[in-house]
Amino acid sequence: MDNFVIASLIFAVLMVFMSVKSVPQGMEYTVERFGKYINTLTPGLSIIVPIIDRIGNKMIMMEQVMDVPSQEVITKDNAMVTVDGVVFYQVMDAPKAAYEVRQLDWAILNLVMTNIRTVMGSMDLDELLSRRDDINAKLLSVVDDATTPWGIKVTRIEIKDIAPPKDLVEAMGRQMKAERLKRASILEAEGLRQSEILRAEGAQQAAILEAEGRKEASYRDADARERLAQAEARATLMVSEAIGKGDVQAINYFVAQKYIEALKDIGASNNSKLVFMPLDSSSVIGALGGIGELAKEALSKKS
Predict the structure, then answer these.
(1) Where are the beta strands (DSSP E) in the chain?
(2) Which residues contact 136 (CB under 8 A, 6 or more apart)?
(3) Lowest-pLDDT range, 48-62, 102-116, 134-148, 244-258?
(4) How far apart, in Å, are the Cα atoms of 268 and each of 118, 165, 262, 273?
(5) Contacts of 117 (CB under 8 A, 6+ apart)
(6) Distance CA 136, CA 158 (A)
(7) Burial degree of 148 (CB within 10 A; 0-12, 13-18, 19+)
(8) What crossing angle do the helices spanning 104-121 and 132-147 adopt, rounded to 10°?
(9) H/E/C letters for each residue in 258-287?
(10) Nearest Cα to 54, choosing from 35, 73, 79?
């Protein structure tokens, strides 16, 4: 009797132990009864019927990362490249992830690798190297739609490395060098062109300023000659009026002025070294006296 009681107690403790399940945070357990799915245990303590019920699959509900191994891809222009990547996904529906597909990780990996070959194989090598964001977006859209029935949400797909063959890399390096040399030559030619244009514009501006200066000087010379001519005309008019009135001193003034101007020109000439001229001193003195008389008359009229 004692053995039966002890056995019953042990059995009861064992049943309690088998019926109480503790699910950690970030996990969900599927429960099967006689092999059929009946419900899902969420994080915390849960109770199942021992012996009849059992835990089917333990699903990780946190976001997971999967490396995509390197594979060779032939591009649209028949270039062979080696590509690898990484996939981020999360289980959104534990029963679907457990029972809709077998070997979930393997299925996701094969799906991603197949679509990488499909998407990248439809592009040229230049597009492949320059449009990585477009490739990632297209892969994400296709793979996420395909895994939705499995209760999976693919959050991100990233292409980590695209490695063309060595000879192709060398050819691309030579092409890049040629393009840089071409751009340098174009920039140098453009610089010389701009320099010549600026030099020509500077010469043109200088010529314009010089012409403006000559024009202004010509205007001023003409104005000075005009004023001098007016002054001479007034002087001649005054002398003519004085002569008309019979004033002999005015004639002497006019003759003396021209006489002195002629002597000044002869003395300033570079070719004149020694000049012998007969001078009538009395005539010159008379002319100077006539100038003095004219000055006195002008002063007396003003007073």
Answers:
(1) 20-23, 27-33, 36-41, 44-47, 53-60, 64-74, 80-91, 152-163
(2) 156, 157, 158, 159
(3) 244-258
(4) 105, 95, 10, 10
(5) 71, 73
(6) 6
(7) middle
(8) 140
(9) HHHHHHHHHHHCCCCCCCCCCCCHHHHHHH
(10) 35
Q: Residue 289: phi, psi to the nearest 5? A: -65, -35
Asked if 137 and 110 count as a contact pair (C-beta separation under 8 A), the reply is no
DSSP 8-state class, residue 32: E
pLDDT number for residue 211: 84
For residue 38, report the phi and psi dihedrals to the nearest 5 degrees.
Answer: -120, -40
pLDDT for the residue 281? 47
Contact 76, 54 (CB under 8 A): no
Residues paired with residue 37 on neighbouring β-strands, in sequence order: 32
Contact 173, 134 (CB under 8 A): no
Q: How many CB atoms lie within 10 A of CB 12?
A: 10
Residue with tokens 């509900």: 61
Tokens 């390096």, located at residue: 173
> Can you give the pTM of this predicted structure?
0.56
Compute the Cα dihedral for 6, 12, 18, 20 and give only its sign.
Answer: negative
Mean pLDDT for the chain? 81
- Say if residues 33 and 64 touch (Cβ distance below 8 Å): no
For the segment 14-56, what is each residue's pLDDT rounded down to a tens digit?
888 888 899 999 999 999 998 899 999 999 999 988 889 999 9
